[in-house]
Amino acid sequence: MSAAAMAAPPAMAEAYVVDASVGIKLFVEEELSDAAHALFARLKHEHPVRLAVPDLFYIECANILWKYHQRFGLSRADAEAAVEQLGQLLLHSTPTAALTAAALTLAMTHGITAYDAAYIALAQRLAIPVVTADAALLRKLTGAPCDLRWLGDWVQGEMEE
Q1: Tens-of-pLDDT digits for all 161 residues of the chain?
Q2: Is residue 153 within 8 Å of residue 125, measured between CB atoms?
Q3: Contact present, 82 and 65 (Cβ < 8 Å)
Q4: 56 phi and psi, to 5 degrees?
Q5: Alpha-carbon distance 124 to 4, whole Å?
Q6: What are the start-end ranges of the E strands in 72-147?
């Protein structure tokens, strides 16, 4: 390694809040699952992406797995394995209690659920974008003062600016 390379600061890791509509795509095959896998694969890079979630993320994903079990025949074993793998992801989790007041204000202001607003509140707190695969949420927040990114814009591991 050259002296110049050793003296250069490491590249800054990108950071995003990801919602359950993105995370669940690691465990059930849906449209944009490939994009979700590309995003989460960046957790293991030399300069990994930092992914943050409100702790609500885990129970929302568990609920989606339950729905897949009830409606589409996802086996209990597969759902339980997905929950275990979900807990092993290198995500930075924030207690929902710390986001409640801001989430309620955002929900009331923009006509979204407090669940969805918790992700926006976390992103605002951390000053980073939210990545979602929830088209309805994206539509509702068009023009709102938040940085909400569509998972479908994730191309070869890089979010298009």
Answers
A1: 333 333 433 334 489 999 999 999 999 999 999 999 999 998 888 888 899 999 999 999 999 999 999 999 999 999 999 999 999 999 999 999 999 999 999 999 999 999 999 999 999 999 999 999 999 999 999 989 899 999 998 754 454 44
A2: no
A3: yes
A4: -60, -30
A5: 36
A6: 91-94, 130-132
CA angle 90/113/161 to nearest 5° reads: 55
21: amino acid identity, one letter = S
Q: In degrees to the nearest 10, what's the CA dihedral of 122, 100, 30, 28?
A: 100
Q: Give the span between the Cα atoms of 115 and 96, in whole angstroms.
A: 9
Burial per residue of 59-75, b for 16 or more beta-carbon CB atoms within 10 angstroms, e otherwise:
ebbbebbeebeeeeebe
Enter the DSSP assignment of 36: H
